[in-house]
Amino acid sequence: MVKEIYLSVQGESSHAGLLCSFVRLTGCHLRCTYCDSEFAFRGGTRMKNAEVVEQVKALRAPLVEVTGGEPLLQPGVYPLMEALLAEGLTVLLETSGAIDVRLVPPAVHKIVDMKTPSSGECDRNDFGNFTSMNANDELKFVIGSRADYDWARALITEHRLLDKPFGLLFSTVFGKLHPRELSEWIIEDRLPVRFQLQLHKYVWDPAARGV
Question: What domains appear along the chain, each with residue ranges and CATH number?
């Protein structure tokens, strides 16, 4: 089920600022406290992968992100990603980190969200994903408090994530933690992660859809 397909500017990851098509799939098994896409939990339109690909191509952006909800709940997402790759597109996948990503095509840029304690879903993280991620990928920590930051920093040390091939992203829960605070913690600890903002929430209304 497809909730929406639209064109915007990528707001996160190392691809931030680039023109990007978004394919948002319906459904999620998590209920994070800071979720900004609850509208995608249900509804949507049943579409064939070929229809999705044609709509994406019509938007004329070389970058496309498959997101949700949690897109990996739908088995059809794997052939969809293959079909988008076959069109020569750069494909991003935004996923919760609570589902094994080993079946995702290696050419897809996986953005895997590690759920911090303030999300309320921290115990759902699948740490096995660390061995299924490659140099195309990024591990994202959404930080809502100092406790979240300390948890993330400890996890990086415990699992030797700085030795992994993928990148590490730190961002704030929008409206809950000031970006300056997170920036200062990173600077103080000399933590070699990529600090990021959700650019789309600063450009448009944070509650807006299709941006």
Answer: 2-203 (3.20.20.70)
